[in-house]
Structure of NAD-dependent aldehyde dehydrogenase:
Amino acid sequence: MHLPVPRTWLAGVPGANTAPAVRDLFDPNTGEHLQTYAFSADQQVDAVLDAAVAAHASGRWADADLAERAVVLSAFATRLEGVADTIAELDALNSGVPVRFTRMFAESLPGTVRRAVELAEEQSTRRWLEADGRRVQLRRRAWGPTALLLPWNAPAAVLVKNVAYALVAGAPVVAKPSPESPWSAEIVADALTAAGVPAGVFGLVHGDARVGALIAADPRIQAISMTGSTHSGRSVASAAGRNLTRLRLELGSNNPAVVLADADVPATARALASGFTKLNGQWCEAPRAVYADSGLTGELVDALVAEIEQLRLGPSTSGDTTFGPMAFAGRKSVLEDQVTAMAAPGARSVAPLALPSDGWFLSPTLIVGDEVRLPGEVFGPVLAISPVTGDRRAVARANALGGGLAGYVFTRDVERGLEVGSQIVAGEVKLNGTSLLDMARDSAQSFFGTSGLGGHGDRDVLEFFAGKQVLGADLPDPAI
């Protein structure tokens, strides 16, 4: 497999990164060293930001008709169709997520871009308002240069969604991938350039948290969309605060699952096992803590172990694998420390899968105990299980986690499930399932608690990248 060298994309032209700082990338399946690459130098970041400012000021993109922007984005979607396999293979190797799943993501990217265009066409950028015969118009206009700070766990999917919605709104974009997963961004940048995005409207830089903070603190950036950990989100918010830069932060969350006394235990175990091991447990809405009725906790744990044992652990690049390695060595190390801390107060840990000697593999792990405490944000295949008595106690424990991104309820009684779910403080609460997909096409989800700022329904994302301006004739002879 050809591994692209991460480059700085300035005004549609890629150039070699020139910072002295470098990052080593390894195969998560074996631990083999794959690549050493340099970060973008500060001067390169500065030039990309200047290009975005100039592109926005020119009006070449921001003032273009939506139909003109749609032509470019449609060409971008078509280009993505031709590189789906490449993106899938690179993301599988970069993130450890099995290629069967990264391929599903990669094949969905063209539809993501076309959905952005469809919503923008539904939501007219200019419409006349009823104003007693006066000419008053409501307009939407992009804030200006927008930074996309991207995660390592779903690099292409998050980049493409954000860049499509930002561009269709008229905003120029400066993207920075995670230093752990830079490769697919190169493929996306090439597709955008080939599709005809004007010079300066898309820029790509590479670097670590220091580079991200540099971008977030820069007054030339008018909006930031960031996906990552709660710790990283706080750092970005702090850096952006001086300029009151508009923020959309999708952060981490220890998501609760409440299992009521009447739950179907085998079905619940299947859903929970799928949820906390999907993408190797490396997705932000995975269930992290289960509060199960005390009468069925033992049966549930046994059923979960049986489900975990059915997983096909193996290389992320194999089509047969359903559970791969952690993305990088540091992630595995953090999770191992968290498992030790969670089991220390008297809980027991259950890790059913045998592991190969190489790579960053970690068995899906259950931590079972009366008062299991999660030591910070858990982002991997670890599931805490605690017995509780009564719905009220279960909801109280769930809300005490403080995350607010997602929640789950398992019961045979849908009406009861809806009632219990409505009491969980989270932007999305699912009954009897843990699908990665939205429950409905027009779903909208806000980030409650410490899980972020804003939301990630399609319309919410589109709304974020542009502001509203009302323009027109004022009231004649107003009384005040």
